[in-house]
Amino acid sequence: PVITYAPRDVVTTKGSDVIFSCEVSSYPLASIQWSKEGDVISFPADDSSTAVQ
Fold first, then answer.
1. Is residue 45 part of a domain?
2. pTM
3. What angle is formed at CA 51 by the lines to CA 19 and CA 10, rounded to 5 degrees?
4. Quick check: is 53 in a domain?
5. How far apart are CA 33 and CA 15, in angstroms?
6. Residues 31, 20, 2, 24: what is their CA dihedral angle, to the nearest 10 degrees?
7. Is 3 helix (H, G, I), strand (E, B) or coil?
8. Where is the Ig-like domain (predicted)?
9. Domain hosting residue 6, numbered range
């Protein structure tokens, strides 16, 4: 896989919304996994966005 757009660090205040993006090119299709404080964040199939608090 090739990461064509990597997530960037974000500094914000507590309670503010933040968006992280990632883009990968691969064959076969790559699986992207996000985590927060060491815990994996699960997404519904084919969902490109979610809210995590």
1. no
2. 0.56
3. 25
4. no
5. 23
6. 50
7. strand
8. 1-53
9. 1-30
**CA 42 to mean position of chain CA atoms:** 10
User: What's the rounded Cα separation, in Å, for the pair 31 and 26?
Assistant: 10
Q: Please tell me the distance from the alpha carbon of residue 1 to that of residue 42, in angstroms, as a whole number.
A: 21
DSSP 47: -
Rg over alpha carbons for the chain, rounded to the nearest Å, is 13
Residues 5, 9: Cα–Cα separation, whole Å: 13
Tens digits of residue pLDDT in 1-53: 899 999 899 999 998 988 888 888 888 888 778 888 899 887 665 555 555 54
